[in-house]
Design brief:
Structural class: alpha/beta
Distance between the termini: 76 Å
Largest sheet: 5 strands, mixed
Helix content: 40-55%
């Protein structure tokens, strides 16, 4: 009887969906043609233009595309799909409903530009867009064919920008736990690592994670910013949080009641006063995420030593705010920052004077991924492309050659994916395809990206990079002597290990880099 009642409810919601959504009847026909079973139709209570549909694919489709759980579909009757609609899908999947596949979703929409929007966000989440108008008037294309098409045309490995969606963030569980622990206690932390090692992605993930926990998180990228721009950005974001929570906005000197800058007032003169006033009305600690922190170190900044010094002094003032509020028993600011060079917290002197940010933040070095984390990333992104990495030899090769560095690993997988014969799905990626990908030369190849990582490390830590030809020498006596020296003077080569250029015994961690060092 219960089953009969559930079937009746499903039929009622299905009929309502078909009446209200343009192309709804045709979409259900698309599902029936491959024996896909819609299990639920849920009208979004916050927006009547949205329906959530939970779909079970037939066995042969599940096995072909490795989609063994239910597939989520969002029907959004918007003339234009905005990026926030894709974020809404990602957030629903992030809820980790056990029956939902976390790597794939469908978007039913009348917006013909939605497919391009999804394509631009490849690497974040695999979403099949189905145009509702074309379902009515266009030639019939089966759902299986549609899934296959996006799997062979969207390269989810080819992602060079920082990850902004949790569905595209892999591993780093230890680092996330460390940052959670620090933020809960108000302890400043600096995250440092190689170029494209995932620092900004980690910053984005933790910021979003803390926001979901109800924390007051704000993010500022100080790359190219003046001190006044940094100060104003922080005040504006704090002002926005106060208004969002319905708190009374204090009278400020630098901002108007609506939160706009007050052009008649010099920001640098009053920003600390106004920051205190905003922190006083915030219900809890402010959590501040600062990217490109090394741009505040005068010797490293792109904006010049004078302006970098002004930003550096702003950070010193911020430290003073934290210390004074802590002394008074008030809620203050928890800071997480990221960069390449930890000199701002690591060096006791700046131009012969005490560095007042020395040891202000606890240092966390973001070495490349572990083998298990890298494997999770490779297999999950491959699944979205109809690729399989079931052979342990392929995972071992990737880890040996690229040491778990996320960008280098994805570049190799992207190059290997182009060797797929025709549009074969699933394609079990052979070791030979990866070996060939690792040998490719030229711009944007895995080899060139390895060179860029080495060049970046050399730029920041030239003395340590100069040791690599000795540490990796073909001459065993020379190699042994160099490694013994490195062990006896660990500070002289500390970043080689912490950044994952070498392992703990000074041997290459990214083996693809060795040929570039010894050539």
């Amino acid at each position: 009887m219960a089953g009969t009642h559930n079937q009746q409810v499903l039929a009622e919601h299905k009929a309502k969906f078909e009446r209200r959504v343009t192309g709804g009847r045709e979409f259900n026909k698309l599902l029936r043609e491959i024996d896909a079973e819609p299990n639920r139709f849920v009208e979004d209570p916050r927006d009547g233009r949205r329906w959530w549909i939970y779909i079970t694919l037939p066995r042969h489709v599940r096995e072909t595309f490795d989609l063994h759980l239910e597939v989520l579909c969002l029907s959004a009757s918007y003339e234009r799909v905005e990026p926030r609609t894709l974020n809404t899908i990602a957030e629903r999947l992030l809820e980790r409903e056990a029956r939902l596949d976390p790597d794939f979703a469908i978007l039913l929409t009348p917006d013909p530009a939605a497919a391009d929007l999804v394509r631009r966000r490849r690497g974040q989440l695999a979403i099949l867009t189905v145009n509702s108008d074309e379902l009515i008037s266009g030639p019939p294309v089966g759902l299986r064919e549609r899934i296959a098409e996006i799997m062979v045309t969207h390269d989810h490995y080819d992602l060079t920008l920082p990850v902004t969606e949790p569905a595209a963030f892999y591993g780093r569980r230890t680092e996330v736990a460390t940052l959670d622990f620090a933020l809960d206690r108000g302890q400043p932390v600096g995250i440092f690592g190689l170029r494209k090692a995932g620092k900004t992605s980690l910053l984005n993930f933790v910021e979003q994670h803390r926001t979901r926990l109800g924390k007051h998180a704000v993010r500022v990228d100080i790359s190219g910013q003046t001190a006044e721009q940094f100060q104003l950005a922080l005040l504006e974001k704090c002002h926005g949080i106060v208004r969002k929570h319905g708190r009374p906005v204090p009278r400020l000197m630098t901002l108007t009641r609506s939160g706009d800058p007050n052009p008649a007032v010099p920001v640098s003169t009053y920003w600390i006063r106004d920051l205190h006033a905003l922190l006083d009305v915030l219900p809890g600690r402010l959590e501040l995420f600062i990217d490109e922190i090394d741009q505040a170190w005068p010797g490293r900044s792109h904006v010049g030593a004078k302006e970098a010094t002004a930003v550096f002094n702003s950070l010193i003032q911020l430290r003073g705010v934290i210390q004074s509020r802590e002394a008074e028993g008030k809620e203050g600011i928890g800071i997480i920052c990221a960069g390449v060079d930890p000199a701002i917290f690591e060096r006791p002197l700046l131009d012969g004077r005490d560095n007042l940010l020395y040891k202000f933040a606890r240092l966390v070095f973001l070495s490349p991924m572990s083998r298990d984390e890298m494997q999770e990333m490779v297999r999950s992104l491959g699944k979205r492309m109809g690729l399989r990495y079931r052979d342990a030899d392929t995972i071992d090769f990737l880890f040996r050659e690229f040491g778990g560095h996320p960008l280098l690993t994805r570049k190799a997988c992207s190059a290997a994916a182009r060797k797929r014969p025709g549009q074969e799905i699933p394609w079990h990626v052979p070791l030979a395809a990866l070996e060939e990908a690792a040998r490719i030369q030229g711009p944007n190849s895995p080899r060139s990206e390895v060179g860029d990582v080495l060049e970046s490390f050399t730029e920041w830590f030239g003395d340590e990079a100069a040791m690599l030809p000795l540490l990796w020498s073909e001459d065993p006596d020379e190699r042994t002597e160099a490694r013994e020296w490195a062990r006896s003077e660990p500070d002289m080569a500390a970043h080689l290990v912490s950044y994952g250029i070498t392992d703990d015994d000074w041997a290459p961690r990214i083996h693809a880099m060795r040929a570039l060092v010894l050539r």
